[in-house]
Predict the structure.
Amino acid sequence: MSALPASRARRGARHRIGAAAALVPLLIGALAACGYGSEKEDDGKKPAAKAEGAKLDGLDSVRIGYFANVTHATPLVGIQEGLIQKELGGTEIKPFTFNAGPSEIEALNAGSIDIGWIGPSPAINGYTKSGGQNLRIISGSASGGVSLVVNPDKIKTPDDLKGKRIATPQKGNTQDVALLNYLSEKGYDVDAQTGKGDVSVIRQDNKEIPTTFKQGGIDGAWVPEPTASKLVAEGGKAIIDERDLWEGGKFVITNVIVSQKFLKEHPKVVEAVLRGAVRTNDWIKANPDAAKKQVNAALKNLTGSQLADKVLDPAFKNVDVTNDPLAKTLRDEAQHAVEAGLLEKPKLDGIYDLTLLNKVLKAEGKPQAEDAGLGAS
């Protein structure tokens, strides 16, 4: 399993981020929907896959949530290509797209969706806020896809960050926590609540960051794909790939979650979705060019536009699809948020239930996934 380098494990003694005593608002996985680039006639769009055959668990449909984002390539491709629907037979996929994690968690809590692809921070927050009663993480989906991109005229190296303005998608979201943790380790003093300090942390929506960067309102941004590649296309330079900060170059950026009620009542449906996801990841790895086209087709279908090749190509390359939940890194990310003063120490015991994933992986001849001791009993 992935783990932080030993130097990062000693961050507590050097932690300099100012933090208010009160618990701040929800950690938010604001991997916003994006629609950069120009449209293309040959976008690879395919007719929606039809539900055919027997209904699993007698269920007419399963409601699946995800973002229109490159870090959600598995549901984008799996649904667009019909690979997940194929495993569900006569149980039809009802897709729902979200712009940010909190709205997806609210939908899950309200029973409006059953299964969702989501970032680690909203999954952690949703689980802890409900006292461990609303969701389980049942699989990994993506690793990586996050970079610090800067204006090279103003910032040459991370040693030049003092006095600069660096954007993140939202206070307390996964990238915001990562930036605060990094700044602390580099010895910069920043107040996590206000973003003020040696470095000014500017919280702004992903889709607005490229414009602000182009206009000079920020000097850089710690952001997920495809925003990072959009900034590079606008003249920015990536000086940190977050994968380089994690042992083995892996850290969770997207999980698969399910409501506990749905998992208990419809395990065959959940298993089928996971089988479709595992086979989709295999398909993406075996067919990267076709997968990129399917991601772009899905983005156009969902947002009305798609990514230019100069953005899509590096964005897709920077995201690693995976079945591994990388549970150790989720626990570490939660600890980063605690140390930044953005989250009270969470009780994560039971957040994972990898039973069905490991059943699927075993049948596919793949290694079993681990839950870092955070599995449901």
Notes: The radius of gyration is 20 Å.
